[in-house]
Amino acid sequence: MKTFGDRIKFLRQQKNLTMGELAKLLKVPTNHPNETKSLTTTTISNIENNRHSPNSDIVIALSLFFNVSADWLLFGREHSMNNTPPHVEHNDDNSNDDNNIHIDKVKEELGELSSHYTALVTQVNDLLTEVTTLRKIVLNDKESEKR
Questions:
Q1: Which of 32, 98, 143, 147 is such that its CA lies 20 to 30 A from the CA of 65?
Q2: Model confidence, pTM
Q3: DSSP for residue 31
Q4: What local confidence, expressed as pLDDT, does residue 104 receive?
Q5: What's the average model confidence in pLDDT over 70-85?
Q6: Whole-angstrom Cα distance, residue 102 to residue 97?
């Protein structure tokens, strides 16, 4: 499973749900405190077909609903770097209480991923700066040789 959409489709099919059923069962926060809304079948289809990148609220809701890590959903890996898909348990009780218990853990995982991403961007920028400096040195050396 190469993409986020592939992993969502796999999990949905493991629970024998249609896109419409998943859309109705999945609850994401709204801008109003303590309010949630369901997604649409079109949104689920767009996610599964990689036409839509879900926001963090949807990633968290999917992670909680399917009882998998956000890391696995987003990147196909667990913290152990094991690429095996998680075991999917069929659980008819998808109450918000159970989801709320795990939401802090998922938010923490997303925060860690964000920190890792920021560190990687910083490293890439540092490398680009070094390459630019080296390029200038090489060009200056070539100009010096011409004179």
A1: 32
A2: 0.54
A3: S
A4: 66
A5: 66
A6: 9
What is the sign of the dihedral through the CA atoms of 22, 42, 34 and 88?
A: positive
Q: What is the domain range of residue 86?
A: 4-146
DSSP string of 96-141, one letter each residue: HHHHHHHHHHHHHHHHHHHHHHHHHHHHHHHHHHHHHHHHHHHHHH
d(Cα 147, Cα 54) in Å, to the nearest integer? 57
Residue 37 in 3-state DSSP?
strand
What amino acid occupies position 112?
E
* Three-state secondary structure string covering 50-94: CCCCCCHHHHHHHHHHHCCCHHHHHHCCCCCCCCCCCCCCCCCCC
118-131 confidence digits (pLDDT tens)? 777 778 888 888 88
